[in-house]
C-alpha cells in the first residue's frame, strides 16, 4: 500500500477507508506468546526494578491494563484480533512447524535456518521456569493474573498456560 508519509506513520493516523485498504493489501501475521511466559521474559530481562518475580507481578497488577507496558499488556488490546482479520496466528513454542508452513504459504523459500528452532527445548525450559515462578505467587496474584489476561486466554490457543487453570 503506498505510504502517505514516513515509514513510521502509525495506522491510527490514516482514515478508515485507507486503513481498510491497507489491511486488505497485507498478509497479516500475529505472533502469540503465553502471557505468563511474556511476564517471565520481561522480568528476566530486568525490565522494572522489582527484586522478586512476585513483587514484579504485583507491580504489573497495580499498574492496571490502561497503564500497562507493551511488554506485558494483554495482546488482545495491542493487536485487536476481533477487528483485524489476521491471515496467520503463530504461537510461540511451535515456530518450527508454523514458520515453515507460513513461508511456504506466502510463496517464500523455506530456509533451513528458520527450521532450526529448538522448540522442544524452549517448551521444556519455559514449562520448568513457569512452574518455579508460578509457585512464588500468592493465590490472589494467580487469580488476578488470570483475570488480567482473561481475553488473551479466551482468544488464543493457550490451553497449557498456568493462567488458564
Automatic annotation (TrEMBL):
Q: Which Pfam families match?
A: Sulfotransfer_2 (PF03567)
The EC number of this protein is 2.8.2.-
- Superkingdom field: Eukaryota
This protein's membrane topology, according to the annotation, is:
Single-pass type II membrane protein
Asked if the Swiss-Prot or TrEMBL record annotates the protein with the keyword Glycoprotein, the reply is yes
Which molecular function terms from Gene Ontology are attached?
Answer: sulfotransferase activity
A single Gene Ontology CC annotation of this entry is: Golgi membrane
**Which top EC class is given?**
transferase
Name of the protein in its database record:
Carbohydrate sulfotransferase
What is the source species? Semnornis frantzii
Q: Which gene encodes it?
A: Chst9_1
Amino acid at each position: 500500500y503506498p505510504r502517505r508519509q514516513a515509514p513510521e506513520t502509525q495506522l491510527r493516523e490514516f482514515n478508515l477507508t485507507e486503513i481498510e485498504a491497507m489491511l486488505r493489501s497485507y498478509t497479516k501475521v500475529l505472533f502469540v506468546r503465553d502471557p505468563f511466559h511474556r511476564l517471565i521474559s520481561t522480568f528476566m530481562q530486568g525490565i522494572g526494578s522489582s527484586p522478586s518475580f512476585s513483587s514484579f507481578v504485583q507491580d504489573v497488577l497495580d499498574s492496571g491494563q490502561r497503564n500497562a507496558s507493551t511488554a506485558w499488556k494483554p495482546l488482545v488490546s495491542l493487536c485487536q484480533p476481533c477487528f483485524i482479520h489476521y491471515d496467520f496466528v503463530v504461537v510461540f513454542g511451535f515456530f518450527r512447524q508454523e514458520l515453515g508452513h507460513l513461508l511456504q504459504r506466502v510463496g517464500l523459500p523455506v530456509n533451513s535456518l528458520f527450521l532450526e528452532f529448538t522448540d522442544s527445548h524452549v517448551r521444556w525450559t519455559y514449562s520448568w521456569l513457569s512452574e518455579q515462578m508460578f509457585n512464588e505467587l500468592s493465590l490472589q496474584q494467580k487469580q488476578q493474573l488470570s483475570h488480567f489476561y482473561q481475553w488473551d486466554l479466551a482468544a488464543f490457543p493457550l490451553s497449557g498456560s498456568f493462567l488458564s487453570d
